[in-house]
């Protein structure tokens, strides 16, 4: 390496110009960018401890310097003029500084462009209740929520309050007014912001992530009292999501929480991403659960109904679908290969049998 300190700026330019989603900077390796789900190495020398230390100093907000020194972890947003906005996690690994940058959007993409099921638009325009968007990290939850908020913004004269960590998609007022609040910059934490939101005349509240019992309780209360609450969880499917929400609470509270959830929940959208058949980009695969009478009964008393996955399978009338039903459509239409679909299917054998029985594969 030269004596000149290495700057992260050229790497962020490379991330944006290639359409990548993430930039990884760690000692001992060249920076890598994630494009269409795969990490690609930039053609530069491996980074040294001094390089990554300098990068952290370049981007870390002053108010987080002490925190990073004490706990070796910091989440924050970073904007680069002419390039874009990034969500950043700085951390220490084996005694050296490391960073991951996630490129975020200015403005939301329309639902049709994202390939989201039409029923998400209906859920977004519900007047009240709880809508959950779930999936692993990097599955597009933030992008989906942003498109739902944008639809509300274009359609309804309401007050939308978002609580995010950090803000990833910037919205401008259209029919609605939107106040975007960033944890640590604009508010102490999700729980305090949610309590405050109830005094800010909201119609719609977006909770970036339900991380703890206080946030879950506050979100359920807001949904119960006539607001539309949009939130995310790191869960794999609808059944897992319901279990996770209930498990936040002590056993003696869980019966009441199930009853509350059965009444307030409007729907759950769980997401995965799969590579497109042409190798360019990824397709969204979604499981959609819409709350109806049988679903509500299954939430209150799981033993009273078939498994929720089976209710979703049989719920086409209510515009429900499982991951594997969506994957079937994508393989049938040539948008995703059989091999890639099987790799992320919930029930690979059953999906394979269905594809063969329907003549999609030999």
UniProtKB/TrEMBL annotation:
This entry's Gene Ontology molecular function terms read: ATP binding; ATP hydrolysis activity
Which Pfam families does the entry link to?
T2SSE (PF00437)
Record-annotated Bacterial type II secretion system protein E domain positions: 198-212
Q: Which PROSITE patterns match?
A: T2SP_E (PS00662)
Record's SMART domains?
AAA
Which Gene3D superfamilies does this UniProt record tie to the protein? Answer: 3.30.450.90, P-loop containing nucleotide triphosphate hydrolases
CDD domains for the chain:
PilT
Q: Which InterPro entries match?
A: AAA+_ATPase, P-loop_NTPase, PilT/PilU, T2SS/T4SS_dom, T4SS_GSP_E_ATPase
Q: Which family does it belong to?
A: Belongs to the GSP E family.
In Swiss-Prot or TrEMBL terms, this protein is called PilT/PilU family type 4a pilus ATPase
């Amino acid at each position: 390496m030269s004596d000149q300190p290495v700057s992260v700026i050229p790497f962020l330019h490379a991330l944006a110009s290639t359409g990548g989603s993430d930039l990884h900077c760690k000692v001992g390796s060249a920076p890598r960018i994630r494009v269409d789900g795969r990490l690609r190495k930039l053609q530069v020398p491996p980074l040294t401890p001094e390089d990554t230390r300098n990068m952290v100093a370049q981007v870390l907000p002053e108010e987080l310097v002490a925190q990073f020194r004490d706990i070796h972890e910091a989440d924050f947003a970073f904007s680069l003029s002419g390039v874009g906005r990034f969500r950043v996690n700085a951390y220490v690994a084996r005694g050296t500084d490391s960073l991951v940058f996630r490129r975020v959007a200015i403005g939301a993409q329309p639902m049709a462009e994202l390939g989201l099921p039409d029923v998400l638009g209906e859920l977004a325009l519900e007047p009240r209740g709880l809508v959950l968007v779930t999936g692993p990290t990097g599955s597009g939850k933030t992008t989906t929520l942003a498109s739902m908020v944008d639809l509300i913004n274009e359609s309804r004269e309401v007050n939308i309050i978002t609580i995010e960590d950090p803000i990833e998609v910037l919205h401008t007022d259209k029919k609605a007014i939107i106040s975007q609040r960033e944890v640590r910059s604009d508010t102490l934490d999700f729980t305090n912001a949610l309590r405050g939101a109830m005094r800010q005349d909201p119609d719609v509240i977006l909770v970036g992530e339900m991380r703890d019992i206080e946030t879950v309780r506050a979100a359920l209360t807001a949904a119960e009292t006539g607001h539309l609450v949009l939130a995310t969880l790191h869960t794999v499917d609808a059944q897992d999501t319901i279990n996770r929400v209930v498990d936040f609470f002590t056993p003696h509270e869980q019966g009441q929480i199930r009853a509350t959830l059965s009444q307030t929940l409007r729907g759950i959208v769980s997401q995965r991403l799969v590579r497109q058949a042409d190798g360019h980009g990824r397709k969204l695969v979604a499981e959609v659960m819409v709350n109806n009478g049988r679903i509500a009964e299954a939430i209150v008393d799981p033993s009273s109904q078939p498994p929720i996955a089976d209710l979703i399978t049989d719920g086409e009338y209510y515009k429900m679908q499982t991951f594997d039903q969506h994957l079937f459509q994508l393989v049938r239409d040539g948008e995703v290969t059989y091999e890639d679909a099987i790799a992320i299917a919930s029930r690979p054998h059953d999906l394979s049998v269905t594809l063969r029985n329907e003549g999609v594969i030999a």
